[in-house]
Amino acid sequence: MLLEIKNLTKTYRAPDGVHGVDVLRDLHWQVAPGETVAILGPSGSGKSTLLNILGALDGVDRGEVWVGGQDLAQLDEKGLALYRNETVGFIFQLHHLLPQCTILENVLVPTLAKPGADRGVLKNRARELLAAVGLEHRLHHLPGQLSGGERQRVAVARALIHRPRLVLADEPTGSLDRDSAGRLVDLLLEINATQGVTLVVVTHALDVAQRMRRMFEIEHGQLVERVACE
Amino acid sequence: MNNWTLITRSLRFYWRTHLGVLLGAALGAMVLTGSLLVGDSVKATLVQQARLRVGRVESVMAGGDRFFRETLAWAVGGVPVLLLNGSVSRVDAAARVNQAQVLGVPEAFWSLSPAGRAPATLRESAAFLNTRLAAQLGLKAGDTLVVRVEKPGLFSRDAPLSGEENEVAALRVTVAGVVDDAHFGRFGLQASQVPPMSIFLPLQGLQQRVGLPGRCNLLLAEKTAPGALQAAVQKCWQLADAGLELRALESVGGFELRTERVFLEPQIVAAAPRGADTLTYLVNEIRAGEKATPYSMVAAVDAPGFLPGDLAEHEIVLNAWLAEDLGVQPGDAVDLKYFSMGDRRKLEERSAKFTVRAVLPMEQPELNGSWMPNFPGLSDKESCREWKPGFDMDVSRFRDKDELYWKTHRGTPKAFVNLAAGRGMWGNRWGDLTAIRYPAEGGAVSKALLERLTPEQAGFHFLAFREQALAATRAPVDFGQLFLSFSCFLLGAAAVLTGLLFAFSVEQRQSEIGLLLAVGLPPARVRRLFLSEGVLLALIGSVLGACAAVGYTQAVLYALGTVWRGAVGAVHFVFAPQPLTLLVGAGAGVFVALLGMSWASRRLFKNSPRVLLAGHAEADPSRQASILGPILLGAFCLVAAFGLAFAGLGAESFFGAGTLLLLAGIFGVQSWLRLQAYGGAGLGSLAELGFRNAARRRGRSLAMVAVLAGGVFVVVAVDSFRQRPLQAPAEESAASESRATGTGGFALVGESALPVYEDLNTAQGREAFALEKDLEFRAVPMRVREGDDASCLNLNRALQPRLLGVNPHDLETRGAFGVRWRLEKFPGWHGLEPDDADVVGVVDEATLRWALQKGLGDTLEYRDDQGRVFSVRLEGVIKGSLLQGNVLIAEKRFTEKFPGQGGYRFFLIDAPVSKAEAVAGELSRALQDRGLELVPAWRRLAEFQAVENTYLSIFQVLGALGVLLSSVGVAIVLGRNVLERRAEFGLLEATGFRPGQLRMLVFAEHCWLIAWGLCIGTVSAVLAVWPSLMERQAGFAWREMAGLVLALTAGCVFWAWLATRLALRGSQLRALRSE
Q1: Alpha-carbon distance values, B899 to A174, B427, B866, B877, B941 (Å)
Q2: pLDDT value, residue B172
Q3: DSSP assignments along A25-56, one per residue
Q4: Composition of chain B by helix, strand, coil, percent to 5
């Protein structure tokens, strides 16, 4: 398994420190390498929380999260940073591009974590990725000069710069129109098909979810697998 | 793409938000660099003044009241100068300067000036004035003035038989020109930023007028080190330079060593080859029964051949004239009456009984006038009835036969006694021999003496003039550090502001931080990336600040020369920026700004990437901290504060208590903010919403409260140290009540240019100056050994402060000044005269601490009249007194060390308050020739207090600027808070709130923070300075304090109001719509 979760519980406490909500409760889950997985669920059900935990953006209260044979709980700050940089590629709903940097530079942002790496090689890789997402003609534009769909494609390219084994996409089409959303999903599936990257997508959109190989829904803090007709 | 690209892109992209950070850093760097540049400029000014003061002179031989031959100076390649004290007045008496420096100078003197040439040729009866003197008297070239100088007595006028004729010489001269600093306008032996008032006269003319032809007392040497100068003088000097004379004794053969100073000083006697010691003295009367001979010379001799070898101490040998006059024979008894000099020239007539051992015939060759020293007022008189020996002589007692004896035998002793008996009767602090007689050849004696006697032993001081002048510029108070400490709060406020603005900027970009963390950059590197941006901003800001510091420094220097002139006197400061200082200032500015940024943004980077990406860093529940910590810390500080305050440990403990209370208050606010953040049951009112908002960003709220409280603490505490302006005491009882205060309860204080020898408290002394006998005053006179002014009025380092010799009894009986001793064994002012021979000094507390930078028990080194080094041990202090700048020692010790320093020049006067002005007027008139200048004691003290107050003003102005900056910070925080909460305000408006209500909500919310800051600061400050408030004689100015706090409050409220108006202009619904 590429990804294995055991007994995961995550609770959000109220400011008084007494009251709290168990978003994820004793959750078990496994994902094989190369799979495409969609996670559905209503707002506040814990979809993004799960994705954040998988991306080491958030911690757990109880349980274990294993990705690529690594127990995330055992990693120190340096190890977590390395994990985020090399193992995972994260695509956010709001894409979070740096407004002060060009498209090319935005794709290269994760490479800042590796000061000793060959800049020329990385730059070529970024160009290739941008070409793959159809933005080879916008390399030196700023994010503010791009449409929402284009920005999201940049975010995809950025997520792939270090050839991650796992791509986590949090509502990647949430801010896009139907056509753009469709093109983005095509792109993600193509990457999965060509590069063997495991894809975990959190989405509200059923049509997006249905294009993934497996679909899960979070109910009462647990993941329940759905079939396409559901 | 690399770190550098990201940093530079970010700097460019966020330039608007960075502008505030840049300005904050620039402000900090400006204040920091400016403070250091002020130090540079003050230092450079003092160095420039020192160079102008010494000109091209390297070293100096100063004689003081010892006058050497002018030719000695020329022989060693130096320039001779006659330097005297005097008074200068306009001929129309419209203006007068009592403390002037009168210099007789040759043409060569000007070649040593900074300009290296004379301003013009100085003719006879003409004078140059320096700029300060000319301005003081309102004189210009061509005007006429009168100079009064004391005709220097070679023999101390305190001594018996010192004469009293023609003490003051008045010279009428024309002003030939006014000399500037380049022409020795600043020349003087003492270091001070204020030049002396100098008048330059032709050397020869002055020498003639004061009766010292060919003599001078100052030797200036160019390019010669003091050691080399001393060696050159030692090589070239003659007996005459030491005031000695080797006179041939024609009638008996041989030579006699005598001195112009009448009594041979012990160090001269010690250096002189062994000879027959003699002491000749004028006795008042020699009596045998009913018969008496008035005013006769009697010699005490060391067993010469013409007297019985075994002459006992009670035996006397008379000459035939006296034996006949008294009708005595060997074996008869005679009484000798003579004066001995007591304190303050008080003559005490004593008597001694002798038995006549032998009678010498008048033909005896040894009976001649050579025995009589050159007593001033005696030796040169034709008639003994014209004698003016310096004491009241009853000339009616002279008989014709006495007159005939004087004409025939002049000063031939009428009697001889044993040397030991003579020393016992007439020995005094100036010496106990008047001559040493040698049978040998004079040249050998002279050579031997000059070889053994050093110029320093003869009373000449060799000074490394240039070196000492430059050393004195290492001011005791480093103005750079002083302004830096004065500006510390302003600096702190700038750092906090910079930090806050940087934190705002980073908060705005929190999703960026979240992204960088999410893509795998380690948190430390992300923080470094952002702080690198901060470093660049701080660097640019600091460079700009360092440039602006040039203007800031000039503004401060201008203020020091004008509105703050009270601190430094009338000094025109040169602006002298040092490149290194600019670099250091800019570097320190970067450091301070970075410190602020690092502190303010430290928490943001601790958030998880998820929180940062969501832009909810401030709302992260995991950050909700316990209120227990600040409550415990606050309680600890509070208990410690009151513990300290009631421990009774003094003013310092109260200041510590105030500081702890300030901390307790800040911790209290922190707890309150944390409590508000938890919310609780729900919102009860709009105000509660305001509190909740203040708590939402509690870091910035707390920072503003802390900075405001700190600022108010500084400003209010400093204000309470301010001395209220002194005024003349209103009631008669004031003097006795104020003995322990800074005026010592005295009505007047003054100094004379020339010494006053008479005791002004006696009828005789008053009569000497034609003072009304019933003039109601009592004087405490003090002897003065000139030295550096160590008061707060002098910016230079006082290497040897002025010594004042005071009779401790005078101050003890009055209970004046309340001296505090290091050791309790000292009983009041009598502690100045300990049982051992130590010289104990008392000094003003401010002088000890700031000017001398010493502590009790430390010593100061001086040279006595014989060139020997002695130490004054500082054992006692007086607080806030008008004696600031001086070191007080016992008069007894003073006269032991400086026997040549005659008379009194410093006076404290007791007089009824209502008559003080009249007494001052009458004394100044009567002692006009002495150049006496009296001022009310309270006014002199006020001059010193004005310096302290000016420093406090500077501190306060800079502190107030800090508070102003803090209040601007409140406005910025307010603006930022509003910006972040636009949607919230839009919502409130959408639910029915009017814009005015929203403004009131925001205004009230921030006014709470201001109120907290001001209250905590004020209460802590009042506690901190409580003892000094209670001690304040003039009472504490509560009204002024309240006014100050109100002004600060008004300033802060104004900024908050302005920011509210600007930030909440128009409808906030737009923000809601955009969301």
Answers
A1: 103, 13, 10, 26, 31
A2: 93
A3: EEEEEEE-TT-EEEEE--TTSSHHHHHHHHTT
A4: 50, 20, 30
* Residue of A16, A50, A57, A163 to mutate, testing the B interface (most B Cβ within 10 Å of its Cβ): A57
Interface of A with B (CB under 8 A): 12-17, 52, 55, 57-59, 77-78, 81-86, 90, 92, 94, 96, 98-101, 104-105, 108-113, 115, 119, 123, 158, 162
In this predicted structure, the answer to whether residue B290 has a pLDDT above a threshold of 50 is yes
d(CA B1070, CA B954): 48
Give pLDDT tens digits for B996-1031.
878 888 888 788 888 888 889 888 888 777 776 666
Integer Cα distance of B715 and B1 in angstroms: 50
Chain A neighbors of B5, CB-CB under 8 A: 101, 105
Which pair of structure tokens corresponds to residue A159? 């997520």
Residue of A nearest to B627 (CA): A16
Q: CA–CA separation, A96 vs A171, rounded Å?
A: 13
CB–CB contact B521 A85 (8 Å): yes
Q: Kindly list the domain boundaries of chain A, sorted by start residue.
A: 33-58+87-226
Q: Examine the pLDDT at A228 and tell me if it is beyond 80.
A: no
Q: How many Å apart are CA A218 and CA A225, to the nearest integer?
A: 9
What pLDDT score does B176 carry?
93
Q: B694, B774, B704: which is closest to B971 by C-alpha?
A: B704
Q: Which of residues 518-577 of B touch A (CB under 8 A)?
A: 518-523, 525, 529
Q: Which residue of B has its CA nearest to A95?
A: B515
Lowest-pLDDT choice from A207-211, B326-330, B612-616: B612-616
Q: Determine the Cα–Cα distance for residues B114 and B53; give it in Å rounded to an integer.
A: 8
Mutation test of the interface with chain B: which of A70, A76, A94, A96, choosing the one with the most B Cβ atoms within 10 A? A96
Chain A partners of B6 at a C-beta cutoff of 8 Å? 98, 100-101, 105, 109, 112
Complex ipTM above 0.85?
no
Determine whether the interchain pair A12/B621 forms a contact, defined as Cβ–Cβ distance below 8 Å: yes
pLDDT at position B592 is 86
Q: For residues B1021 and B1009, what is the distance between their CA atoms, to the nearest angstrom? A: 18
Question: For residue B741, what are the CA distances in angstroms to B730, B813, B1031?
Answer: 15, 15, 11
Q: What are the E-state strand segments in B818-903?
A: 820-821, 839-844, 859-863, 869-878, 886-890
Amino acid symbol at B658 = G
What is the C-alpha to C-alpha distance for residues B522 and A112, in angstroms, rounded to an integer?
10
Confidence class of residue B710 from pLDDT cuts 50, 70 and 90?
A: confident
Tokens at B666, concatenated = 């800040």
Tens digit of pLDDT for each residue in A55-76?
A: 888 888 899 999 988 899 899 8
Comparing B718 with A46, the larger pLDDT belongs to: A46
CATH fold for the domain made of A33-58+87-226: Rossmann fold (3.40.50)
Q: For B515, which of A14, A83, A96 is closest by C-beta distance?
A: A96
Query: Nearest Cβ partner of B679 from A15, A59, A113?
Result: A15
Query: Do A57 and B518 count as a contact with CB atoms less than 8 A apart?
Result: yes
The pLDDT of B949-963, averaged and rounded, is 77
Task: Determine the longest span between alpha carbons in chain A, in angstroms.
Answer: 54
**Contact state of B10 with A100 under an 8 Å Cβ cutoff:** yes
